[in-house]
Every structure is written in structure tokens, then in C-alpha cells.
Write a structure and sequence with these properties.
Elements: E1 6-13, H1 18-27, E2 36-41, E3 50-57, H2 63-73, E4 92-95
Antiparallel strand pairs: 1-3, 1-4, 2-3
């Protein structure tokens, strides 16, 4: 069985709809990468300002390319009116744990 590695997104603002908002931001680049297999947020921790997420594309061989690209452009990009303007993820890494 091939090991699949997830992409870990650090520093996601801990807001109510963070999963949906992060998915919308990632979907902006769906033409560049294969479809997302799943996106999972860490447990809701009301006492923290940030959270984390794990992301897996359907073809995990593109994870390094996606990681490099997403670190370069930053997700989500801060913009006026965005519910995620208080912070953007600090870094995106590949989680090397076997699934």
C-alpha cells in the first residue's frame, strides 16, 4: 500500500465557518491542481485564535507542488470583507504520517 501524506495548514483563524471558508479559498486554485479528496479542521478550541486543518488531494503525488504553491500565495489571502482577515495560515506543510 502506498503511503499517503496529508497537507497540514497551520494558523487557520478559528472562526465558526472556517472549514467552508478555507475550502472556498482552496477551490480558487482547483484549475491548477487535482480535486480535493477531503479537508478536515482540527477540533474547535474556542480558547485559541487559530486552528489547523488537514488537506488531501485525490492525487497525493502533487502535495509537494501544492504545498510550495500555497505557501507562496498564502491562503487565504487577506481581503476586505473576508471573515478570515484577522490572520492567514502561518505555514503549510506535508504531514508525513502514514494513513
Amino acid at each position: 500500500m502506498q503511503d499517503e501524506h496529508d497537507i497540514m495548514v497551520h494558523g487557520v483563524p478559528n472562526v465558526q465557518n472556517a472549514n467552508e471558508i478555507l475550502r472556498e479559498e482552496l477551490d480558487k486554485y482547483k484549475q491548477k491542481f487535482v480535486p480535493i479528496k477531503w479537508l478536515r479542521m482540527g477540533p474547535n478550541r474556542d480558547f485559541h485564535k487559530t486552528n489547523y486543518a488537514f488537506l488531501r488531494y485525490q492525487d497525493s503525488s502533487i502535495h509537494q507542488e501544492a504545498t510550495d504553491f500555497l505557501n507562496k500565495v498564502g491562503i487565504p489571502k487577506p481581503k476586505s470583507g473576508s471573515r478570515l482577515t484577522h490572520a492567514r495560515p502561518r505555514s503549510i506543510t506535508i504531514d508525513r504520517r502514514s494513513q
